[in-house]
Amino acid sequence: MELFIYLFASLFSVLNPIGTVPIFVGLTQDYNKAERAKVALWTAIDVFLILIISYFVGQYVLSFFGITINALRIAGGIIIANSGFSLLNKKFNKSRGVNKEVEVDAQKRNEIALTPLAIPMLAGPGSISLLIAYYQDHHSTKDIIISCVAILFIAISIFLVLRSAHYLSRILGSSGIVAISRIVGFLTIAIGIQYIISSVLSIIRGI
To answer: 25 by DSSP, 3-state: which?
Structure first.
């Protein structure tokens, strides 16, 4: 249960589906209720597949490029901490790394679940590096099952949040979403710094 809570909380903080609410609302403002539910479902499925593939295949990518796990943890920690600082200190960015051209293109396309919603808004370098590093320390059969269940619950959470995005947007408003994003940002910074500290200590012990 501790492993499940740790991975679920870490992924939820890094992915920050609450922060995607305004973007989802903007991209689906001309959709009806059924169409919004479909986009929310496929976004959750896409995120689940991306995270699962990263979890199982990531280690082989590291081996192919000769990247050590400590290097990955430090790089991932920097990316995760930087994402947290962006959420904590800056005004909420409604495009979240998506330029105007991409946003306009997304609004014209019938399917926006994979891009830009699943990638890069939700599943990005931070969550991918987190899962690859997590697998290195927790790869027993039991841990793998728990990890897959945690990723599944993350996908379900994303679906529920996006499915209720228009409702949440009205209830929370911009200020409420910003407040939640900043709290999540603080937790994300802590996760990133912890990854860096763990990697540095591991390198020192190996000297």
So the answer is: helix
